[in-house]
Specification:
alpha/beta; single chain; disordered N terminus; 10 strands; Lyase 2-enoyl-coa Hydratase, Chain  A, domain 2; binds octanoyl-coenzyme A; 2-enoyl-CoA Hydratase, Chain A, domain 1
Length: about 300
Amino acid sequence: MASIGSVTRSLISKTILNPGRIAVVHNTGFIKFYSAAPNYENIKIDVVGSKKNVGLIQLNRPKALNALCKPLIEEVGKAVKDFDADDKIAGIILTGNEKAFAAGADIKEMQNNTYSGCQKTGFLAEWEIITNCGKPLIAAVNGFALGGGCELAMLCDIIYAGENAKFGQPEIAIGTIPGAGGTQRLPRYVGKSKAMEIVLTGNFFTAQEAEKMGLVSKVFPVDKLLEETIKLAEKIGTHSPLIVKMAKQAVNQAFETTLKSGLLYEKSLFYGTFATDDRKEGMTAFVEKRPPNFKNE
Ligand code: CO8
């Protein structure tokens, strides 16, 4: 299976990725973004795609199977926030390596936690930043996505998986329960019976099973996963960023509310699109039989 390095090299040869990021950073105004970015220890970031409009975040603690220690989640939060604030970025991809997306919370870091300590420090509060991202967040999952790793994938908007991906919520086997959305998001994706089975047994399930359950949108050969996920983000990037954001808000509302109030929410956002220049441009371009030129206004 290809590593992110070899996938990156193969994409460079297809000019999907930028071989000299620093130069393009200068050319496209990313210099400020990158020079301001901290020296990450647990993740790698890049800007990819033929239009250099896709933010890529790779979890990078391979020896610990990308276990989600607090500094790693803080770095992911910072990178997501920066990409979210960057007008040139249309979507953000979260990925790991071929063995693991993430094997869960860092059990060694958590081992001596206490109830009062969790309460006092607000354990897991740093996940909120990722949840609040307004731009499409796409998980590209190869290998293990377990516990917090499965939960991290589930808080993304779309999950693409490699054929070797293994999902699971095995917290029960170490005397705890999912704590970053596993008991809440999983039933919304796969229904109660499946979610209960997964959470109460701790059993792992395959990418193909995850696709069948509706947790994963598509499954790809391992070495094609990142390339296909970049294509997905690029396709989304052809649309108005403003309208994409509204569509994301509307779909997410379906998980938060009753059908009646969700439909009301949808209607008000739908009407709201008629206050935007991009809605006008989109429909005018259709009528004039030309491609739209969206301005994010
Ligand atoms: N935490 C810390 N270290 C880990 C973790 C983890 N979750 N998973 C793997 N590692 C480490 C191992 O300790 C090992 O390190 P070392 O070489 O120093 O001993 C290294 O990664 C490689 O792991 P293995 O040797 O075990 O690799 P295998 O290929 O034999 O097995 C498995 C891979 C099956 C994935 C196995 O490592 C495993 O079962 N890992 C634990 C999976 C798990 O239980 N995850 C759930 C954790 S609890 C959780 O996520 C709670 C969520 C709460 C919210 C989220 C908070 C961030």
